[in-house]
Specification:
7 helices, OB fold (Dihydrolipoamide Acetyltransferase, E2P), 2 domains, alpha/beta, Rossmann fold, about 230 residues
Length: about 230
């Protein structure tokens, strides 16, 4: 698999070169200190994978991705976790937080191989076996709500509030009940009082999540690291 490094820090370049050499299945075709150099290279050459730093001189890694209509597969390398969700919009393979180990590097590269394989395999599925809604007990009513309609759930003392685009439903069930009942691949607890539907997240800024209904949710310090791992692993 042909790859390039776009990284302005020599120590980080050396670590990536060593990991790529040790990996065996990767062939390094260029190392660039800024995105402009890489852009010129990619005008005439094609590669399968880019190891791309976010904080680069001249043009940031994110802006570089925005400028590309058909980029190679990308593994981002950075010391800053706050860009994780923004980069996710560009369908990156993985997000490596510096300093990262060789084992973590191998795990990221293995995702490239898995995605390549999935392009050639038709995976059977039984959609009818997967629930797509849940019944919410609100007062004397049991109301059917689709998972995809739920934006977030907030706990407020004696009840929880299930928030959708159109309505809010009050439930006597505790937040723990919803954490265990909703699909864990789609819903994640980000705070002692909040569960979010990850498919509704627009961006992450610092310790706040922004949803399309102009709602801003806090991320608890105890939940943030696991939340970023869940999104990208």
């Amino acid at each position: 698999m042909k790859c390039i490094i776009i990284e302005d820090q020599p120590p980080a370049q050396r670590i990536l070169k060593k990991y790529i050499e040790d990996m065996g299945s990767l062939q390094l075709h260029g190392t660039f200190s800024d995105a402009i150099q890489a852009m010129e290279f990619l005008k005439t050459e094609s590669v399968d994978l880019m190891f791309l730093d976010i904080h680069l001189p001249k043009i940031s890694g994110i802006d570089f991705l925005k400028s590309m209509s058909n980029p190679p597969q990308v593994i981002l390398t950075t010391a800053f976790s706050e860009y994780a969700l923004e980069s996710y919009e560009f369908n990156v393979i993985d997000y490596l937080l510096k300093p990262f180990s060789f084992q973590r590097f191998v795990k990221a590269v293995s995702k490239v191989n898995a995605r390549n394989q999935s392009n050639y395999e038709l995976k059977p599925s039984d959609e009818s076996a997967t629930p797509k809604e849940i019944y919410i007990k609100s007062g004397y009513e049991h109301i059917k709500v689709a998972f995809d309609d739920i934006y977030h759930i907030v706990s407020d003392a004696d009840y929880t509030e299930i928030v959708t685009k159109e309505k809010k439903y009050l439930s006597n069930e505790p937040l723990r009940f919803w954490e265990e009942s909703l699909p864990q691949a789609q819903f994640f607890r980000i705070h002692r009082s909040h569960i979010v539907n990850t498919s509704k997240i627009q961006k992450l800024v610092g310790n706040q999540i922004y949803l399309p209904n102009e709602t801003v949710l806090p991320i608890g310090r105890a939940y943030k690291e696991e939340f970023v791992k869940r999104i990208f692993n």
